[in-house]
């Protein structure tokens, strides 16, 4: 429990208890944990869309403000985010960095390639919103789309203080650090 919140000497002492990925900073690990739990604690007050990282919410908020400071040199189209302009510019260059390993067809976006690949498997892509939350916690009733997210959540009901130092984060819930292993873990 005596680990600092960040580490500048190159070490990555904060580890994800689900996938093992390590981080230099505690807040980076905590933010990463939302990718496993499915929680998106940062919500847009204009449209209700939620995000697991605060910077993603800030980027999204500019869409409501109508600000579009980035313009395409070729066609003049304007964008609120530089990354959207860069993605758009690939349309003009014809560069297709993502190639299907099955048929060789190229795509400018990884997401488009992933959608395309369903034609080879015979499956239809399922949107996150269409996936039911079928895994429910017997103790509190909270539901999840994935069994692993329920399993991670259930730790909040069985956590003991033992060798762990616990703290509560409004965005992540109960989190803690195992002092013996010098690894940070999330207990929600």
Summarize the structure.
By secondary structure, the protein is of the alpha+beta class. It contains five helices and 13 strands.
Word description of this protein:
It comes from Oryzias latipes (Japanese rice fish). This protein has 188 residues and is an alpha+beta fold. The chain contains five helices and 13 strands. The chain folds into two domains: 66 residues, no CATH class; 71 residues, Classic Zinc Finger (Double Stranded RNA Binding Domain, 2-Layer Sandwich). Helices cover 32% and strands 19% of the residues. The strands form six sheets. A three-stranded antiparallel beta sheet has the order 11-12-13, sandwiched between helices. A two-stranded antiparallel ribbon has the order 1-2. The C terminus is likely disordered.
The CATH superfamily label of the largest domain reads Classic Zinc Finger
Q: What characterizes the major β-sheet? A: 3 strands, antiparallel
- Mean residue pLDDT: 74
Output the helix-strand order: EEHEEHEEHEEHEEHEEE
Q: How many helices in DSSP terms?
A: 5
**Helix fraction?**
25-40%
Q: Which overall shape is indicated by the principal axes computed on the Cα atoms?
A: globular
The CATH class of the largest domain: Alpha Beta
Question: Compute the gyration radius: what is it?
Answer: 21 Å
Give a count of the beta strands, DSSP E runs of length 2 or more.
13
Can you tell me the CATH topology of the largest domain?
Answer: Double Stranded RNA Binding Domain
Helix-strand category: alpha+beta
The CATH architecture name of the largest domain reads: 2-Layer Sandwich
How many structurally independent domains? 2
How are strands sequenced across the largest beta sheet?
11-12-13
The stretches of 5 or more residues where confidence is low (pLDDT under 50) are 160-171, 174-188
Proportion of residues in extended strands: 15-25%
N-C termini distance = 18 Å
């Amino acid at each position: 429990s005596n680990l600092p919140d960040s580490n500048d000497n190159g070490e990555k002492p904060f580890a994800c208890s689900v996938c093992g990925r390590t981080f230099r900073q505690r807040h980076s690990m905590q933010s990463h944990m939302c990718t496993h739990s499915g929680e998106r604690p940062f919500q847009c007050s204009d449209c209700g869309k939620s995000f697991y990282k605060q910077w993603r919410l800030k980027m999204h908020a500019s869409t409501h403000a109508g600000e579009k400071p980035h313009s395409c040199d070729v066609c003049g189209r304007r964008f609120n985010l530089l990354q959207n302009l860069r993605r758009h510019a690939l349309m003009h260059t014809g560069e297709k960095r993502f190639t299907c390993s099955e048929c060789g067809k190229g795509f400018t976006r990884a997401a488009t390639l992933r959608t395309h690949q369903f034609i080879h498997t015979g499956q239809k892509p399922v949107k996150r919103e269409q996936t039911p939350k079928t895994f429910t916690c017997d103790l509190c009733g909270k539901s999840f789309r994935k069994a692993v997210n329920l399993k991670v959540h259930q730790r909040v009901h069985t956590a003991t203080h033992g060798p762990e130092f616990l703290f509560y984060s409004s965005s992540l819930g109960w989190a803690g650090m195992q002092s013996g292993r010098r690894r940070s873990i999330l207990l929600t």
